Amino acid sequence: MRVVVLCTDLGIRIPGSKGASLHLQSIVCALARAGHSILLIAVAGSVRGGAAQPDVDAGWPDNVVLRLYPHPGRAEGAERERRKLAYTEHVARDAEQSVREFQPDVIYERLSLFGDAGTRLARVCQTRHVVEVNALLAEEETTWRGLHHSELAVERERLVLASADLRVAVSEPTAAAVRRIAPDGPTEVLPNGFEAALFASLPDQQVARRDLALPPGPLIGFAGSLRPWHGLDVAVAALGDLPGVALAVAGDGPVRAELTAQAAALEVHDRLLWLGHLPHRDMSRFLAALDVAVLPYPNLPDLGFSPLKLYEYAAAALPVVASDVGPGAEVIRALDMGVLVTPGSSSSLAAGVRSILDDRGVWRVKAQAARARALAEHTWDDRAARLASWLALTPVRTNR
Questions:
Q1: Do residues 14 and 53 touch, judged by C-beta distance below 8 A?
Q2: Rounded to the nearest 5°, which phi and psi values hold at 222?
Q3: Looking at domain 2-193+380-393, which of 3.30.56.10, 3.40.50.2000, 3.30.1490.270, 3.40.50.720 is its CATH number?
Q4: Would you call 21 exposed, middle or buried from its count of C-beta atoms within 10 A (0-12, 13-18, 19+)?
Q5: Which phi and psi (to 5°) does residue 187 adopt?
Q6: Which of 111, 154, 117 is nearest to 132 (CA)?
Q7: Is the dihedral angle over the CA atoms 367, 327, 114, 103 positive or is it negative?
Q8: Chain segment 21-60, per-residue pLDDT in tens
Q9: Is 259:228 a contact under the CB 8 Å cutoff?
Q10: Which of 19, 61, 185, 193 has the most C-beta neighbours closer than 10 Å?
Q11: Distance from CA of residue 341 to its chain's centroid?
């Protein structure tokens, strides 16, 4: 198949180290490894040696063509939204000739705020349009940032989803949300996955700690961007009930300063270890250094995330303590890879961590079993095979 993969989300750059960028890079590479020809249209990240490169050691497969557009620059408020609208318009117009020449069988677009470029390109090129939905972004932005043009964002999102030939959601709650605002049209569910090559072998824990300058003793950890909806404040508070246990965080983000101040106020700052952003190729080393991973999500309504990091925790044979909320909790139950606790409760999180640290032999066996299942069932190559089967069978809807 010939597939245009399109993303006009200004927060998702190629190459990039945040989860959404890794998701986009990984599904493109997995589709290419399966033999499909890909034209990737996305926002340019850093450039090394004159050409953009992904955050994977192997680089882009030969059957991937990149068309990366420069980021228009950061902005806030109404100006931020204006730039998103202008960027989508520019991509829809400028990429048309490239898409026509590529002659795609399908355009696979990641849903973006104000993003209708895929709808327009599919119409003019008379090809199928499939939309990947990680969240309803108009609702998400209104909740966490506020939108000046919320009515336009909601209506454009509805029209894109309603006209798509197929919607691919990352979780059942997200699929339900899609059907709620655009009830007509087929919808499938495809969770996130992980790069098997990065977890084919795992380093020794002591070697990993030495390489990352992490201390001896019980060590819990979190990998990912630091956003309010990740609930890291609960993990920091839990350190007060976990004497002698340190929390290592591989990532950065807007709430880091708040978390640092919280740790100082609770007098646990010496046990909160910041590693900053790590190259994705080093993620297996970081996870191998830990005894327990934490996913302390708050009790958010309609939580539809499919945490990429959760499958990486499984691949690293790392037990998890997580909030009993959302699709991630169902994965943990299915793989029997951790303990589920009350969302927002630091004492419950601490109790879950202690239960694993006090019975490491049992959890080591369970974690190895979860790793085997993850490698067999949850890699990006597995996800790409399922996606490709849907793309090949999706007909063009007559109501576009």
A1: no
A2: -140, 140
A3: 3.40.50.2000
A4: buried
A5: -140, 130
A6: 111
A7: positive
A8: 999 999 999 999 999 999 999 999 854 433 333 443 347 9
A9: no
A10: 193
A11: 22
